[in-house]
């Protein structure tokens, strides 16, 4: 059995129409093997070293470094783990020795009986997810397959960053059917409450706004009209 420790939950905050403060989630999976999943942006070096010390983990003792995909906010500190077998997207290597693994055709990579790495493409064409069995249930560490818990009810949150949205929708569905908890790429861990995939009506917010724009003036007109009729005495029972 394993313990999943989120060392740093990722985040993403828009600060302008084309700019976002963002960092990827960094996770430690502790058990018979030591596994790090994603290493955040390069600015996290000191933070990550301190977090490892706090949890009694020596970086050179980490067995596996898994990067869910190759984006800069998920791979910034990979060289802190010189002895780890690296699984980054569909690449698997130990030092400079590369082993070809058939993620492409859905083959999971087994770390041991309780931890598997499965292909979950969509955000990029080679995303992977770590599935770890813990005493509380199965935890899926997904990278940007899920941006945060909010993207379960707002498709736009993940679709706007997706290279292959249809593929990603299928990968999301698969992970939701298997996991009890999800550690997303840019938010805190959350519990899977509903295994059905919720396809939010994407324009739900504008729709609601539109309703207000029509309903509120209509109500004002009707109520105002009645009042006006009463006041001017043009309306009699
Ligand atoms: Zn990404």
pLDDT averaged residue by residue: 91
Q: Compute the CA-based radius of gyration.
A: 24 Å
Uncertain stretches of 5 or more adjacent residues: 200-209
Overall geometry = elongated
CATH class of the largest domain: Alpha Beta
Beta fraction of the residues?
25-35%
CATH architecture of the largest domain: 4-Layer Sandwich
Number of domains: 2
Q: Structural class per helix/strand content? A: alpha+beta
Question: Percentage of helical residues?
Answer: 10-25%
Description:
The protein folds into two domains: about 5-190, Metallo-beta-lactamase, Chain A; about 205-235. A seven-stranded mixed beta sheet has the order 1-4-5-6-7-8-9, covered by helices on one side. Strands 10-11-12-13-14-15 form a six-stranded mixed beta sheet, covered by helices on one side. A two-stranded antiparallel ribbon has the order 2-3. Helix content is about 25%, strand content about 30%. The radius of gyration is 24 Å and the shape is elongated. By secondary structure, the chain is of the alpha+beta class. About 35% of the residues are buried. The protein binds zinc ion (ZN).
